[in-house]
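Quick one: structure tokens for this chain, please?
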Amino acid sequence: MNMLFRRYLLLAGIFMCFISCESNHFLKSEKKLKSDIVGTWNRVLFGNELEESWTFVDGNLKILQPSRHGDTLDVGSYSIDATLTTPYLKIENTTYTNQNPGGDTYNYKWSIIKLDNKVLEIATESDIGGLAQIEFIKQ
């Protein structure tokens, strides 16, 4: 009986670790992540940077800056890869040198820090040095 109690206690502890993680995407399916990212997201910017929105649909990414006469700033493609511990957003084929320090492109495998129906946060290690993190609010 004591051994059975220990097993239940261990399983309960593991379960509590999973549900108490700050990350809201832990163990989310790839299908759910793909569904959650679809739509238009407004980038959270600071300082004098221009307003920017990203639209994810059917594996295609469109980046707009409405203050630039509503023109499409850049286009590219994206895919979602969900591992057991970390989901990724892979962006490819963009050419615009973005508003990040150093003017890098967005073509990276980004870790999805947070993704729900209101907020998207992604981060990656940049080739130009340091960590790049982008936050969005869903339209």
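The mean pLDDT is 83.
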